[in-house]
């Protein structure tokens, strides 16, 4: 069963929680109890078997065969390697490559699974309604969600992205998805404004009622949906199994996990893996110049009244980290009244401050750091020169924060860094870093030049992308999203 972080809904089954996406009155679903999963039982398992076991521990009420069918995605050819999440040694740490799926970003690890969970959940509830999936993206979620739900019967998906706030490759990926049920909208604003508008729509009883009258229901493919977050827990277990198999970690020895994160979902999955019994010593939260999370761990104040920066790691250009609510709920002893107060304050004043005990609990569980733009490019260059390994800018943020962490305290614990995207998704930035080439290459020429220079293969997902036909884009302001949905999917 699943409860709300704000204590404002009766406990729900996993099917109900996944179908709803988020709590309609505000708040996010979390499991009533966090199960224990012993990694030792899966030392000889492949990725699909591990995923099945972990997801069953949370979603035992889904129709029989749902999860078995879902995990086939990991070995049916959708990923370009037999191992969908290889752990690659780079220097003295392991890079967990999460970008071997159909969109070359870590979101595929969950969004190739979510359509199975969501359609099965809707059927389990006896709702013969079309599911309208609303998704805000800072770059990678959009394409992965579109690809995952493309032509899935009984669904339509609309992705909202900040106009000018994603890379040209990310935008082109979204616009070339195809399918008869996919829609994209460019929003004049940043990701936080996109995400906030979508959350307000979920909370609108009027819109929900009108959808219901037209045999439709809302859901989400963002990590606010537990069905999206759940598959991400799996790859942290997998990283530990791989480290033990490669004999870089002794069985039962603890590891550190570094995650470059903006919306806090990816590192939250690692946090839940830790709560489930995975031997994790320290969680390290890495931010770019939009360092709202790093500042919180410094002073206990979460404040979004600050400049918003467009960086070379656009998927992390976020100030309102949705999943941080789940983390604070767990760290505060599941105090739903306190969570409600803090996030009401955030909504009305743009900031909140936690008490000293909560801040100490956060610091005891997690370390945070950030990297500026010059440090990101320098890290990409350094790692390539020393190891001939290409980091994308997001993963470079993680690597730089890890180096700072290690230099400050001398912690030699084996560390896994989540590598969240192919370097070719951000070829212009990566090329500039490894060559000091300041020429204004277009993103497509940069792809080819980076591949030619390094010998790295361009992912299949990006080959020929420039020539693919694009779909129409609706351009709007944040306050025009609701009228757009009404016109397109209710009145129209």
Report on this model:
It is a single chain. By secondary structure, the protein is α/β, with parallel strands linked by helices. It has a domain of 253 residues: 3-Layer(aba) Sandwich (Rossmann fold). Helix content is 43%, strand content 15%. It contains 20 helices and 15 strands. The strands form four sheets. Strands 3-4-14-9-10-13 form a six-stranded mixed beta sheet, sandwiched between helices. Strand 5, helix 6 and strand 6 form a beta-alpha-beta unit. Helix 2 packs across helix 10, helix 6 packs parallel to helix 7 and helix 10 packs across helix 11. The longest helix is centred in the middle third of the chain and has 20 residues. The protein starts with a strand and ends with a helix.
Give the helix/strand layout:
Elements: E1 2-4, H1 14-20, E2 29-31, H2 47-56, H3 66-71, E3 87-90, E4 93-97, H4 108-111, H5 114-124, E5 130-136, H6 140-149, E6 155-162, H7 168-175, E7 182-187, H8 191-202, H9 205-213, E8 216-220, H10 226-245, E9 255-260, H11 265-275, E10 280-287, H12 292-299, E11 301-303, H13 324-331, H14 336-349, E12 351-353, H15 356-365, E13 366-370, H16 373-387, H17 393-409, E14 415-419, H18 427-435, H19 443-454, E15 473-476, H20 481-491
Parallel strand pairs: 4-14, 5-6, 5-8, 6-7, 7-15, 9-10, 9-14, 10-13
Antiparallel strand pairs: 1-2, 3-4, 11-12
């Amino acid at each position: 069963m699943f409860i709300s972080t704000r204590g404002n809904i009766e406990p729900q089954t996993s099917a109900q929680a996944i179908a709803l996406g988020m709590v309609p009155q505000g708040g996010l679903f979390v499991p009533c109890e966090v199960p224990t999963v012993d990694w030792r039982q899966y030392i000889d398992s492949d990725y699909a078997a591990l995923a099945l076991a972990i997801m069953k521990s949370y979603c035992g009420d889904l129709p029989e065969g749902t999860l078995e069918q879902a995990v086939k995605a990991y070995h049916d050819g959708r990923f370009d390697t037999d191992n969908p999440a290889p752990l690659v040694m780079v220097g003295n740490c392991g890079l967990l490559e999460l970008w071997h799926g159909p969109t070359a970003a870590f979101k595929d690890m969950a969004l190739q699974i979510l359509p199975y969970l969501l359609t099965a959940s809707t059927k389990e509830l006896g709702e013969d309604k079309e599911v309208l999936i609303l998704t805000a993206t800072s770059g990678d979620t959009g394409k992965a969600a579109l690809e995952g739900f493309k032509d899935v019967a009984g669904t339509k998906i609309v992705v909202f992205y900040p106009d000018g706030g994603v890379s040209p490759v990310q935008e082109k990926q979204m616009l070339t998805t195809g399918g008869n049920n996919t829609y994209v909208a460019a929003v004049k604003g940043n990701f936080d404004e996109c995400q906030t508008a979508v959350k307000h729509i979920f909370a609108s009883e009027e819109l929900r009622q009108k959808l219901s009258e037209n045999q439709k229901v809302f859901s989400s493919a963002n990590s606010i949906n537990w069905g999206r977050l759940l598959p991400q827990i799996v790859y942290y277990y997998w990283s530990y199994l791989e480290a033990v198999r490669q004999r870089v970690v002794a069985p039962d020895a603890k590891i550190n996990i570094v995650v470059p994160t903006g919306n806090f979902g990816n590192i939250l999955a690692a946090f839940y893996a830790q709560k489930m019994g995975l031997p994790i010593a320290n969680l390290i939260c890495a931010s770019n110049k939009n360092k709202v999370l790093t500042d919180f761990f410094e002073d206990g104040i979460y404040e979004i009244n600050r400049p918003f920066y467009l960086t070379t790691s656009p998927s992390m250009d976020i100030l309102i980290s949705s999943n941080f609510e789940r983390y604070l709920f767990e760290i505060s002893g599941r105090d739903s009244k306190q969570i409600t107060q803090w996030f009401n304050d955030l909504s009305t004043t743009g900031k909140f401050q936690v008490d000293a005990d909560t801040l100490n609990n956060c610091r005891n569980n997690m370390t945070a750091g950030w990297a500026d733009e010059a440090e990101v490019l320098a890290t990409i260059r350094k790692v390539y020169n020393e190891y001939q390994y290409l980091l994308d800018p997001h993963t470079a943020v993680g690597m730089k924060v890890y180096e700072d962490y290690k230099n400050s305290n001398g912690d030699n614990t084996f560390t896994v860094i989540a590598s969240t995207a192919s370097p070719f998704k951000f070829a212009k930035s990566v090329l500039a870093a490894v060559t000091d080439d300041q020429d204004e290459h277009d993103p497509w020429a940069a792809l080819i030049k980076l591949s030619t220079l390094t010998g790295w293969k361009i992912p299949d997902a990006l080959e020929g992308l420039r020539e693919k036909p694009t779909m129409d884009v609706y351009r709007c302001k944040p306050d025009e999203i609701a009228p757009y949905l009404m016109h397109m999917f209710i009145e129209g």
